[in-house]
Specification:
Helix content is 21%, strand content 45%. The chain is globular and about 50 Å long.
């Protein structure tokens, strides 16, 4: 799994949102990743705007050239690769053991199992238009460790519990992340910003920093067809190992 994609996945888990009655919810966030070096490869700093749409039983997350779509009515999750004009799909609920080669599921789950702690603080600050409270989160596994400072606000019109019903489908494709999802439920409010540092065994002493800030949350009528892959994209069979390598 590429370090950048891992950071994006972790960032998206903590920047939670949920749908309200009426128009769908559109959440926009600025994502930054510091430059880093791993195994002789230099990765420059990067900045992206990430957009999440939440509808009635539907979710779409746009991250660079990749979109992930959940449709509970169709019992499907779509992974859309815009740079390749292709997509793949997975039946819901996700059964990881059926998507992996025999005997590999247990091995991957062991390597990716995280210990997660979330510690509340009395520190507060203004993030955009929202007053937010600080939480410190630490994640460790046999492969990596990550320390995050999260800023959560109760002033946003977000129903986090409803969102988990949708986003839990996405995270079910990421081995070992269930513990993080459960720990995030202990946070009061919606996380509107985070700063994180991550290290992996493959990186030696190198750490990678990232930050995410929600810039807007609004009720908007979604564009037609946003919760489905483009009709002219090519369908590919789902390959779990290829997906992990590309993230």
């Amino acid at each position: 799994m590429r370090t950048g994609r891992m950071l994006v996945v972790l960032s998206l888990i903590v920047l939670m949102s949920a749908g309200l009655a009426g128009a769908d919810i559109k959440v926009v966030q600025d994502h930054h990743q510091d430059a880093f070096s791993m195994m002789g490869q230099e990765q420059p700093a990067s900045d992206e705007e990430h957009v999440t749409w939440i509808g009635d039983g539907k979710l779409r997350m746009d991250q660079g050239s990749l979109s992930t779509i959940v449709d509970l009515d169709a019992e499907k999750m779509f992974i859309v690769k815009h740079d390749e004009t292709s997509y793949t799909d997975v039946d819901l609920p996700v059964d990881l053991s059926s998507l992996l080669p025999p005997g590999m599921a247990e091995q991957i789950m062991t390597m990716m199992q995280f210990d997660v702690t979330v510690t509340p603080s009395e520190e507060t600050k203004k993030v955009g238009e929202w007053m937010a409270k600080r939480y410190d989160m630490k994640m460790t596994s046999t492969m990596m460790s990550m320390n995050s400072v999260l800023w959560a606000s109760t002033e946003t019109p977000i129903d986090v519990k409803k969102y988990f019903d949708l986003y839990s489908k996405v995270i079910s494709l990421q081995p070992g992340m269930e513990g993080m999802m459960e720990s995030m439920r202990k946070i009061d409010g919606f996380v509107v910003a985070q700063e994180a540092t991550m290290s992996m065994k493959l990186m030696g002493e190198t750490t990678v920093g990232s930050s995410d800030v929600v810039t807007s949350i609004e009720n908007v009528d979604p564009p037609a067809g946003i919760y489905a892959p483009p009709a002219d994209y090519t369908h590919e069979e789902f390959d779990f190992m290829k997906m992990m390598k590309n993230r």
